Amino acid sequence: MSLKTDIEIAQESTMLPIEQVAAKLGIAPENLEHYGHYKAKVDIHAMKDMPRKAKLVLVTAISPTPAGEGKTTTSVGLADALNRVGKKTVVCLREPSLGPVFGVKGGAAGGGYAQVVPMEDINLHFTGDFHAIGIANNLMAALIDNHIQQGNALDIDTRKIVWKRVVDMNDRQLRHIVCGLGGKASGVPREDGFDITVASEIMAVLCLASDLADLKQRLAKMVVAYSRSDKPITAHDLKAEGAMAAVLKDAIKPNLVQTLEHTPAFIHGGPFANIAHGCNSIQATETALKLSEYTVTEAGFAADLGAEKFLDIKCRAGGFHPDAVVIVATVRALKYHGGVPKAELNNENLEALEKGLPNLLQHVDNVKNVYGLPCVVAINAFPTDTEAELKLVEEKCKEQGVNVRLSEVWAKGGEGGKALAEEVIRLCEQENSDNFRFVYDLDTTIEEKLNTIATKVYRADGVSITPAAKKQIQQLTELGFDKMPICMAKTQFSFSDDASKLGAPKGFKITVREVKVNAGAGFLVAKTGDIMTMPGLPKVPASERIDIDENGKITGLF
């Protein structure tokens, strides 16, 4: 097994010119907008009327731990493996945010010999999509404050501005600020705050829009504030959607890159699944479904967050659903869920593994029995995994009627994912995904939808809604926003809203403290527990390891 770092492996790879990667999918050179030699935006207008023909495979995971799970690595390796066994495959991923790149995770483009490249570009600015989203978001914020400064004809209540500024960085200092100080010429003093760019509603709008016209219509619907008479104020009221759409005209086009094995990869959009809907763009997925036989995509964090939102939000908006689901786990992470400290995870511990397995089994049960989808468990292999531990995982999954396949894509690339690929093909071509169902009906009340997600997916005893959130639910219902899907903002580390409750906890309720409408995205956001939409940096940020030499070679991106 190689001891090289991810970035060293990526930098030693030989990439194909991007037009050769595009040619594999039948994308003509005139439909590419080059960003250097190895990445391009794709003008998908010419493909608009093409039918979908691919099988869709969703990759999700167990509840994340410091031990790591390897969802993106598995997605990339699976796509490479499917190509190796003769299936024309595309992988669709989310764009990394600079916040986690400089914070905890470092690079987020897969790992080992299952990566997308150019890895440094993808992790650092890429094609500028997040910058465009941030500018569009902050233009909206500036227009709100300017409208108030210029006489406030819409009677905006400065205490009820729900639109925050954003920056693509983990910066806790900006969570709560006071702005507009410095006298009359500097605006009206008020409390405000920043979110991270991926939490912006514009990110969700970009990812869910079907085309530029739909993008503009969605932007117009966004509720940015309320008047003193509690009337919603939209972006359209402030004549903002045209300028925002103009800023986003290139950002809406999917980005095409490649894996180390030259599998085409669309990387587009990047909302976090703990605070947003956690999926890449519908346009990227839709294009891949038209141009391939198999499309592999991932949803953020665990299946209770990313997969739930992929299925209940993105699939509703896109009009598709997966043919099969891959649930990624590691023996190490399951032992962590069983109470083993990170420093001791390399030691065989069947007792702890059995104690942690309910986390995996609950995710499996949700995918198989709540959503009605065929699935396979992919064990991301580590050298410290023992035969007895792997056998225990396999036995417990088989009791639920689900197969387990060892994934060795980190060390071996697509070759190490062939067993997983064969099982995915079997699921897609032999199993029945027509039993798919959403977890809740849109026609039910907001409170009923919240309770359904909490009880069916998290296995909670229900939701506990704070008085403030109850008032918001009543107002949103009166305004006609109650028939939308729900985007739960919840810790990714637990089925509960308490990050310390590992495994598959029971006997808890989900506390909903705030409910707001993202009318442009077309869903309601329910904030639970102490989840925040602006993360902070850790004690030792990943940025401390990132460097560049005099020749421009970057190191430290894992």
Question: What does it look like?
Answer:
- This protein has 558 residues and is of the alpha/beta class.
- The protein is built from 18 helices and 25 strands.
- The strands form six sheets. Strands 1, 2, 3, 4, 5, 6, 14, 15, 16, 17, 18 and 19 form a twelve-stranded mixed sheet that branches. A four-stranded mixed sheet has the order 20-22-23-21. The protein has a three-stranded antiparallel sheet with strand order 7-12-13, with helices on one face.
- β14 and β15 form a beta hairpin.
- The protein starts with 5 loop residues before the first helix and ends with a strand.
- The model has no long low-confidence stretch (mean pLDDT 95).
Structural class: alpha/beta
Major beta-sheet overview: 12 strands, mixed
Count of distinct strands: 25
Uncertain ranges: none
Percent range of helical residues = 25-40%
Strand content is: 15-25%
Q: What count of helical segments does DSSP give?
A: 18
- Please give the alpha-carbon distance between the first and last residues: 17 Å
Average pLDDT number? 95
Provide the gyration radius in Å: 23 Å
What general form does the structure show?
globular
